[in-house]
Design a protein that fits this description.
CATH superfamily of the largest domain: DhaL domain
Number of domains: 4
Helix content: 40-55%
CATH architecture of the largest domain: Alpha Horseshoe
Largest sheet: 6 strands, mixed
Strand order of the largest sheet: 15-14-11-18-16-17
CATH topology of the largest domain: Serine Threonine Protein Phosphatase 5, Tetratricopeptide repeat
Strand content: 15-25%
Distance between the termini: 65 Å
Length: 549
């Protein structure tokens, strides 16, 4: 039986079925990610984005068109994760906005709404790339709109839309060479097809089991806020350092020295007089500050005082500050994304106020960043996504931040090393614009490399990739593939390090021993005249992450 029109209730049913179908097929979508790296999460991201809309729909007090459309759009925007999830949320935003003032939806309305969804999605992407989910929604919606005069029911419109979406999807390898090289279609486009398939099932009364449409909180990882309270008292740390020019000590760089100490605390004063450096800083981790400084020379004098004790003495004398006063907004805060205990600690030591847990295999949502923005309570906020698939979700959160009274900017760091260097170049005494420019400039000076294992045999960029062997990847390009992770790392670094390189940051993961990492660090120091900073990142998936400056 042909369905001429649908109401808000039916639209809701169709959407719920679409969410259930992408959830059921998410692993299939995950496996379509082009690189043979175990980080495929497109299906997961799209499913969780849809689930967030489901959560909003389940809370609706009534089922009028405006309420249903608002729930779908708002939920998708809040729950959007990864580039595919953000683009999907924008499609839903444009799609539902067309229906808001309608009581019933006709086939022509459906076609026009899909065109609007495609338009909104394209506008949300700075540099739209064809051969992706964008292409699939645009080509299929345009085809439907061009033929809608010959289609007199929602059923036929949806069937035709799905047919055209599959045609467009099959064509994606011709638009993106990397897809053709690996022999797969675009994963985001495939995810959209699964959503459409589910919506058709809902329209025809073949709804996927509702147990598959649980709330996002039921399955996603806990997003941990590791906020550092800058109001803690800590230790007043003062020392005089004599710089030493030797192979055992680092060459003194005043800017880097100051920025790192600034990241460890506040009230920093650094004065240099030839080979003598005088330092004053309030920090929660005086030992870390001293260890860092000692890498440049020898202490002439040092003093550490516990300011908590001083505060307690004042409080006993009736001079304690008024604790009842609400905290005023801080001037600055930094939010960063990372996964792995070691990486989290590194960012915290660099004065990051909030860690949003996530990375390759679990991209945080827009709502996760919004909650972080609320928690840090700052006038000026910088977000470091540290992953190219997290940039769009964090940018979407910055739009929300305007309503919260915060000036929020994304520093588009696409790797952990870029994020770390951005933090090192933050200066609490500088203006917002100066910090933004300095941090943006800093991330361009870092080359990122990664070593991880392959999950399938393939060939990319003339590199033969074999399952379970270790790939060396530089700036997203696969450089080598070796049986041993250290050998892969050596070949990778030999390509990354040049005459202009001064520092290599080596972050080893949870699958790598300290001894193996130290062996690699020794190799770098022996072969190159370069400083090596070795840290236990504890990250999953990647045996090594390198930053070369």
């Amino acid at each position: 039986m042909a369905t001429k029109t649908i109401n808000a209730q039916m639209l809701s049913e169709m959407f719920l079925a679409g969410a259930a179908n992408i959830e059921a097929k998410k692993e299939f979508i995950n496996e379509l990610n082009v690189f043979p790296v175990p980080d495929g999460d497109t299906g997961t991201n799209m499913s969780l984005t849809m689930k967030s809309s489901v959560k909003e729909l389940n809370m609706c007090a009534n089922n009028d068109m405006e309420t249903v459309c608002d729930a779908i759009s708002k939920g998708a925007l809040k729950g959007a994760r990864g580039n595919s999830g953000v683009i999907l949320s924008q499609i839903m935003k444009g799609f539902t906005s067309y229906f808001t003032n309608l009581k019933e939806i006709k086939a022509i309305d459906f076609a026009n709404a899909l065109i609007e969804g495609a338009n909104v999605a394209y506008k949300a992407v700075t540099k739209p790339k064809e051969g992706t989910i964008l292409t699939v929604i645009r080509e299929s919606s345009e085809a439907l709109r061009q033929n809608i005069e010959n289609i007199n029911s929602i059923n036929k419109a949806m069937d035709y839309l799905l047919e055209q979406a599959n045609i467009s999807l099959k064509h994606t390898p011709e638009l993106l060479p990397v897809l053709k090289e690996v022999g797969v279609v675009d994963s985001g486009g495939a995810g959209l097809v699964k959503v459409l398939e589910g919506m058709i099932m809902g329209l025809k009364g073949k709804v996927v089991e509702r147990k598959q449409i649980s709330n996002p909180e039921d399955q996603q990882e806990t997003i941990a806020g590791a906020g550092l309270d800058n109001e803690e008292f800590g230790y007043c740390t003062e020392f005089i350092l004599r710089l030493v020019d030797s192979e055992e000590k680092k060459k003194f760089n005043e800017k880097r020295f100051t920025n790192v100490l600034s990241s460890l605390g506040n009230s920093l004063v650094v004065v240099r007089d030839e080979d003598i450096v005088k330092v004053h800083v309030h920090t929660l981790k005086p030992g870390m500050a001293l260890n860092f400084a000692q890498g440049y020379g020898e202490f002439v004098k040092l003093k550490i005082e516990n300011m908590q004790e001083q505060h307690s003495e004042l409080a006993a004398a009736g001079q304690a500050p008024d604790q009842a006063k609400p905290k005023e907004k801080k001037e600055y805060a930094i939010i960063a994304t990372s996964v792995g205990d070691g990486l989290k600690e590194l960012f915290e030591n660099l004065q990051v106020d909030y860690i949003v847990s996530g990375g390759q295999t679990m991209n945080p949502s827009t709502e996760d960043f919004v909650e972080a923005i609320k928690t840090v309570n700052a006038k000026n906020i910088f977000i470091l996504p540290n992953n190219k698939n997290i940039v769009m979700a964090s940018e979407q959160a910055c739009i929300v931040a305007e309503d919260l009274g915060s000036n929020c900017k994304v520093i588009p760091s696409k790797s952990i090393p870029q994020g770390l260097v951005a933090c090192m170049n933050f200066n609490a005494d500088a203006s917002f614009e100066e910090n933004e420019n300095e941090m943006r400039d800093a991330i361009t000076r870092v080359k990122t490399g990664q070593v991880t294992f392959a999950i399938k045999d393939t060939k990319i960029d003339d590199v033969n990739i074999r399952k379970d062997e270790f790939m060396g990847i530089s700036e997203g390009k696969i450089i080598c593939c070796e049986k041993d992770p250290v050998e892969s790392a050596k070949k990778l670094l030999d390509r990354m390090i040049d005459d202009d390189s001064a520092i290599v940051t080596l972050l080893y993961g949870e699958a790598t021993s300290k001894e193996e990492a130290e062996e690699l660090a020794a190799y770098i120091e022996d072969k190159y005249t370069i400083e090596v900073e070795l840290h236990n990142g504890g990250q999953p998936v990647y045996n090594y992450i390198f930053g070369v400056e």
